[in-house]
């Protein structure tokens, strides 16, 4: 990127960032690079002992300037320091804000029962097990939570992971090998893409189908029938940027028609959709039909970690074949205990799921009436589409600095070009006064920037 005198423009910053830091959503087809025999090079082309390499791995580091330039212009929205977090309100960089940018959907991170469970676990088991689940990192808390998750979903077994990201790495790398194909919705989490890339190292293939499109999935699965490959379809239950619910009923019908398998990554679905907050599969009345359901503790369950539920034999196979599970340190006792307590509270205090939906419905209705473009969201994730990176960052800054509203800007290294947006998300514990104050600020900023 060429620097302009006096610094880069917002559009230039966005362009560099998209080029340097984008999570690639392209299908990375393996490239065959010929490797010549060691002695095939002519003697005058051989590197001599002591010669320097022509390329430095650090070159890309020196060329990356977008973050520093965004900081200089006050447009850097990432890694903001929280000094207090009470749920609907927080203190960020010394400023008290209304939180429209959290995944604490049920408001359980400060619940007394959740806090007490975490504290009790530290007192009895310490701060860490200092080892992997496979050897010395499993506690009775892990087993208890796995039993409760399996019971909650009505499945044979569950497996608890240290992070939600790890779930998708483990599933893909353990189950997909040479002769297998991962068919993934174009809008899935980055962790799914990374998991499939690990599987590709073992000979698996990746095919992306059209977003939330049963027709596209049918077309790609039909092509596979001409060969001899097994297929695992992977989708998000609720898409994290758009708030859209997967059309699981339509997709599952196609999956079964072709004899494939399906996994739903329900990181954002748990607590948000379905009866009693059981997620996307139960939202569609298909809780027993989906092969695997994965998710995270870092959203509705107010902790850190991940889980997978399904058939006992499949869960046990992953337990013994996924390196990202077997050789990673186990979740700390406090995080496991907190997640288990949050699961209990979610079931005991059903008003939280109801309140979350009421708040989401209210915000969608009011934002649409103001004239904002929010897309097909049906959940407490409500995007405000701006479709221009520079304007998105400017809107984020004004909401934060002038109106004390904390939101998340998604620009073109985290969403497709032309789909930049302000991601707003809501909690069961937001009061109407919080929501109305946010709407007032959004209306002012929206008019200023020509969004409404």
Describe the structure.
- The chain has 16 helices and 14 strands.
- It has helices spanning 10-21, 59-63, 66-72, 112-125, 140-153, 164-175, 190-200, 214-224, 248-258, 280-283, 312-321, 323-326, 333-348, 351-370, 389-403, 432-448; strands at 82-85, 89-92, 95-99, 157-161, 180-185, 205-209, 230-236, 261-265, 292-296, 306-310, 381-385, 405-406, 408-410, 421-425.
- The protein is globular, with a radius of gyration of 24 Å.
Total domain count:
2
Largest sheet: 7 strands, mixed
Q: How does the overall form come out from the CA principal axes?
A: globular
CATH topology of the largest domain: Aspartate Aminotransferase, domain 2
Percentage of residues assigned to helices: 40-55%
Gap from first CA to last CA: 33 Å
CATH homology-level superfamily of the largest domain: Type I PLP-dependent aspartate aminotransferase-like (Major domain)
Number of DSSP-assigned strands = 14
Uncertain residue ranges: 1-7, 20-43
Summary, kept brief:
This protein has 452 residues and is α/β, with parallel strands linked by helices.
How are the secondary structure elements laid out?
Elements: H1 10-21, H2 59-63, H3 66-72, E1 82-85, E2 89-92, E3 95-99, H4 112-125, H5 140-153, E4 157-161, H6 164-175, E5 180-185, H7 190-200, E6 205-209, H8 214-224, E7 230-236, H9 248-258, E8 261-265, H10 280-283, E9 292-296, E10 306-310, H11 312-321, H12 323-326, H13 333-348, H14 351-370, E11 381-385, H15 389-403, E12 405-406, E13 408-410, E14 421-425, H16 432-448
Parallel strand pairs: 3-12, 5-6, 5-7, 7-8, 8-9
Antiparallel strand pairs: 1-2, 2-3, 4-10, 9-10, 11-14, 13-14
Helix pairs in contact: 1-3, 1-15, 4-13, 5-13, 6-7, 8-9, 14-16, 15-16
């Amino acid at each position: 990127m060429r620097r302009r005198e006096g610094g880069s423009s917002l559009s230039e910053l966005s362009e560099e960032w998209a080029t340097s830091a984008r999570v690639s959503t392209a299908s990375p087809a393996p490239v065959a690079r010929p490797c010549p025999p060691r002695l095939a090079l002519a003697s005058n082309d051989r590197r001599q002992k002591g010669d320097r390499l022509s390329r430095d791995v650090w070159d890309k580091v020196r060329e990356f300037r977008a973050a520093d330039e965004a900081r200089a212009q006050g447009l850097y929205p990432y890694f903001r320091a929280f000094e207090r977090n009470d749920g609907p309100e927080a203190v960020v960089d010394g400023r008290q804000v209304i939180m429209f940018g959290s995944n604490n959907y049920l408001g359980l991170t400060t619940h007394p029962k959740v806090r007490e469970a975490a504290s009790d676990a530290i007192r009895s088991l310490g701060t860490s097990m200092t080892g992997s689940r496979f050897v010395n990192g499993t506690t009775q808390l892990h087993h208890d939570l796995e039993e409760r998750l399996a019971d909650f979903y009505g499945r044979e077994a569950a497996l608890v992971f240290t992070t939600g990201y790890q779930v998708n790495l483990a599933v893909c790398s353990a189950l997909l090998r040479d002769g297998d194909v991962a068919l993934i919705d174009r809008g899935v989490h980055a962790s799914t893409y990374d998991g499939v890339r690990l599987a590709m190292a073992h000979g698996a293939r990746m095919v992306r189908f059209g977003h939330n499109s049963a027709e596209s999935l049918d077309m790609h699965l039909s092509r596979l029938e001409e060969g001899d490959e097994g297929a695992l379809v992977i989708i998000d239950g609720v898409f994290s940027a758009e708030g859209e619910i997967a059309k699981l009923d339509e997709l599952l019908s196609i999956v079964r028609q072709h004899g494939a398998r399906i996994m739903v990554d329900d990181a954002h679905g748990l607590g948000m959709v379905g009866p009693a907050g059981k997620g996307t599969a139960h939202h569609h009345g298909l809780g027993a039909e989906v092969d695997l359901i994965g998710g995270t503790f870092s959203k509705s369950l107010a902790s850190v970690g991940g889980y997978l539920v399904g058939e006992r034999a499949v869960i046990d196979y992953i337990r013994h074949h996924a390196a990202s599970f077997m050789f990673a340190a186990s979740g700390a006792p406090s995080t496991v205990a907190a997640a288990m307590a949050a699961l209990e509270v979610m079931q005991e205090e059903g008003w939280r799921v109801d309140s979350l939906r009421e708040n989401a419905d209210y915000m969608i209705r009011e934002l649409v009436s103001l004239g904002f473009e929010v897309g097909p969201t049906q959940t407490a994730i409500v995007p405000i589409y701006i479709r221009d990176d520079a304007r998105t960052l400017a809107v984020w800054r004004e909401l934060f600095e002038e109106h004390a509203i904390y939101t998340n800007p998604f620009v073109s290294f985290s969403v497709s070009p032309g789909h930049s947006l302000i991601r707003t998300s809501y909690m069961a514990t937001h009061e109407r006064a919080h929501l109305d104050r946010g709407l007032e600020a959004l209306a002012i900023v929206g008019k200023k920037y020509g969004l409404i």
